[in-house]
Amino acid sequence: MRVLVAMSGGVDSSVAAARIVDAGHDVVGVHLALSTAPGALRTGSRGCCSREDSADARRVADVLGIPFYVWDFADKFKEEVIDDFVESYARGETPNPCVRCNERIKFSALAARALALGFDAVATGHYARLADGRLRRAVDADKDQSYVLAVLTAQQLRRAVFPIGDTPKPAIRAEAASRGLLTADKPDSHDICFIPSGDTRAFLGARIGVRPGAVVDAAGTVLAEHDGVHGFTIGQRKGLGIAGPGPDGLPRYVTGIDAETGVVRVGGLADLEVTELTGAEPVFTSGSAFTGPVEGQVQVRAHGGIADVVAEVVDGALRMRLRSPLRGVATGQTMVLYRPDPDGDEVLASATISATQ
């Protein structure tokens, strides 16, 4: 089998590539250039896609004895991920750019090019497992990335390979060291890769500009002014620009965002609780929608935000009734439906949250 391995320059994709080679496949490594102006070096462990990362991936490919290429996807990444991220925040939503990158870049644009060039599959260093074409959580619960992969269609999953999902992260590093791979001790990237400074508000502000609005309480009393709804997310407690706690002496949180009027509402912790979620454009990993109510668990953030639910498809949307409320759920987030399983929870469906109740 001809396999294209996406090599970020980190330890996970390095070991993924090595395992595919060990399995006897015809392997080619590719590094995705996603920035129009990549930095020479990383800043600590923030971000990725620097020239240093590309060089590290090339060195690993040399050790493994596989061909290696750098493919320029910067324009596509800006259009499909960065612009989408900015526009979503401008609408008062809270998107996950890693989800969009997997959906539109790694397993859409990259996979399409790979198939056009005669490759049979695309492998990555994601922590997830595939069994009979069905996506499951990784063995390492702390590193599990099935959430950000849940937007993949059944057809895309059939062409995907996740070689390291059956191994805990410490063992992956040990394996890299034993193979003599220089990425063995390389720090993991974190935060948003295209915002290496970590200052999301400044990044958005520079692209959206000033759009004044008001911070109000449940009664509509104006508590503060702000420069744009992009500086707020549901559940946010700090940086609200208001003086002190509420009348009850308890902290106040962002409970609602109206991008059209510029109003940001704040309230108490109880005001953050949601018991029903509606998701647009659902994706079903089996390839077809289920026909009746399904019991399972929903996850609304990459790490955490899990509750038991009853899910069903209503008028083309995925609707979930929560057995117990979740807090701080925002439109624009991805909700993923899992079927609990001792051998690894199985992903059943995903959708972008369009409404909460």
UniProtKB/TrEMBL annotation:
tRNA-specific 2-thiouridylase MnmA-like C-terminal domain location: 275-353
Keywords of this entry: ATP-binding, Cytoplasm, Disulfide bond, Nucleotide-binding, RNA-binding, Transferase, tRNA processing, tRNA-binding
Gene3D superfamilies: Adenine nucleotide alpha hydrolases-like domains, HUPs, Translation factors
E.C. numbers: 2.8.1.13
GO BP, sorted A to Z: tRNA wobble position uridine thiolation
Residues that hold ATP according to the record: A6, M7, S8, G9, G10, V11, D12, S13, L32, G125
Lineage top rank: taxon: Bacteria
Site description Interaction with tRNA, residues in chain: H126, Q333
Any one GO CC term of the record: cytoplasm
Localization: Cytoplasm
The tRNA-specific 2-thiouridylase MnmA-like central domain, residue ranges: 202-267
Active site: C101 (nucleophile), C193 (cysteine persulfide intermediate)
MF-aspect GO terms: ATP binding; tRNA binding; tRNA-uridine 2-sulfurtransferase activity
Chief place where the protein resides: cytoplasm
One Pfam family of this chain: tRNA_Me_trans_M
Interaction with tRNA: annotated span: 143-145
UniProt-listed InterPro entries: MnmA-like (IPR004506), MnmA-like_C (IPR046885), MnmA-like_central (IPR046884), MnmA-like_central_sf (IPR023382), Rossmann-like_a/b/a_fold (IPR014729)
Reactions mediated catalytically: S-sulfanyl-L-cysteinyl-[protein] + uridine(34) in tRNA + AH2 + ATP = 2-thiouridine(34) in tRNA + L-cysteinyl-[protein] + A + AMP + diphosphate + H(+)
NCBIfam families documented for this protein: PRK00143.1, trmU
Function: Catalyzes the 2-thiolation of uridine at the wobble position (U34) of tRNA, leading to the formation of s(2)U34.
Protein family membership: Belongs to the MnmA/TRMU family.
Protein's UniProt name: tRNA-specific 2-thiouridylase MnmA
UniProt source species: Mycolicibacterium brumae
Taxonomic lineage from the root: Bacteria, Bacillati, Actinomycetota, Actinomycetes, Mycobacteriales
